[in-house]
Amino acid sequence: MTEIINNYEMKKESTFKIGGRVIKAAFPSCIEDLVELLKTKEYDCVLGNCSNVLFTSSDINKSLIITKNINGYKTEGNKITVSAGTLGSVIARECLKNSLSGFEFLIGFPGTFGGMIYMNASAHNQAVSDYFVSAKIFDTNDNKIKILSKKEMDFKYRYSSLSKTGAILLEAEFELPKGDAEKIEETMNRNIEFRKTRQPSLKWGNIGSIFKNPENDSAGRLLDLCEMKGQKEGGAMVFENHANFIINYDNATSMDVIMLMYKMYSKVREKYTIEIKPEIKYIGNTGTEEYKIWAIMNSENMQTM
Ligand SMILES: Cc1cc2nc3c(=O)[nH]c(=O)nc-3n(C[C@H](O)[C@H](O)[C@H](O)COP(=O)(O)OP(=O)(O)OC[C@H]3O[C@@H](n4cnc5c(N)ncnc54)[C@H](O)[C@@H]3O)c2cc1C
After folding, report:
1. Where does ligand 1 bind, in terms of residues with CB under 6 Å?
2. Class of domain 2-66
3. CA-CA distance, 304 to 163, in Å (whole number)?
């Protein structure tokens, strides 16, 4: 079954708690329904938990599919098959239950497998691609379901071939090594503690790290040296404990966030002649002032399907 809501306010979905109304949002509850929606060609973009997307605060001239209700997984020995809308933290707990190691970083992770595979999510020296075997995808060019190997996914830092081809992840298969349950739990507890102390809680709207790390450096380190922590623009503020996070501390608009990002980007460019690139995606309307500023910072991450 698919629920379709017209004039849906994306503020309700985004972990940033920012976003205007889209033309319609569709919430399929199974892979078959997702495929049917994709075949209609009526939708501009597929999203998971919206934990990496800045939506414009104005009305958005787009229709979206949100997969968060397509959650499910199957575990057989060392193999796990996961549906696109399943949250990382659900699979982290499943791995702990089965003493499988490799997904300890997913504990407390707000993204779905669709979003994580799309951008090869990683943390604590683990990446979602590490034990990836294959993906079932929908090819939006020829409307066919296909299986892609790890090689065809071409995983790199914050990149998979899905972002180039526009293919939609339906399901992914992983094969993880057996580990020691106690050690897995210990690592997960350490990871949770790290997130609690270093990253903002979702009580403050945020969408994770704002900029990608430049080669051999850390965007957080550079932004910290530029004294960005605590800097504000309207209702948006650079998080006090980590300079690569922006929090929505007081009804921030997308323009507040874009202006603050531009300040961060410009400071690093000025001081270190390094152009840091946004890690987050932006969904807005072409030709607007904020769209133009976004485009200066990044031409790679304009969201298209
Ligand atoms: C508090 C916090 C901490 C975070 N920590 C980390 C971290 O440690 N490491 C990290 O890498 N990220 C982190 N993030 C960012 C974010 O959670 C990840 O990028 C995650 O992978 C996004 O998943 P999502 O389901 O929310 O994707 P969305 O935000 O919904 O979408 C992100 C992108 O994926 C695409 N996409 C979504 N589903 C599909 C699909 N089925 N098929 C094809 N494309 C799809 C979308 O079109 C979009 O381009 C953090 C975010 C927050 C809020």
Report:
1. 15, 45-53, 67, 84, 110-112, 114-116, 118-119, 121-123, 162, 168-169, 199, 202, 206-208, 281, 303
2. alpha beta
3. 9
Query: Pocket of ligand 1, candidates 12, 43, 52, 126: which has the most ligand atoms within 8 Å of its Cβ, to mutate?
Result: 52
Among 76, 53, 79, which residue's Cα sits nearest to residue 66? Answer: 53
The domain limits of the chain are 2-66, 73-196, 219-297
CA 279 to chain centre: 9
73-196: which CATH number, 1.10.600.10, 3.50.50.60, 3.30.160.20, 3.30.465.10?
3.30.465.10
Give burial (CB, 10 Å; 0-12/13-18/19+) of 287: exposed
Question: Is 158 known to be catalytic?
Answer: yes
CATH number of 219-297: 3.90.78.10
Query: What torsion, rounded to 10 degrees, do the Cα atoms 256, 253, 164, 125 define?
Result: 70
Characterise 50 by phi-psi region: left (phi > 0), alpha (psi -120 to 50), beta (else). left
Based on the residue annotation, tell me whether 89 is a catalytic residue of this protein: no
pLDDT by 10-residue block (mean), the chain, 305 residues: 97 97 98 98 97 97 97 97 98 98 96 98 97 98 97 97 96 98 98 92 93 96 98 98 97 98 97 96 94 86 46
The tally of CA atoms less than 13 A away on the side-chain side of residue 221 is 8
Q: Sort strands 168-175 and 132-139 into parallel, antiparallel or unpaired.
A: antiparallel
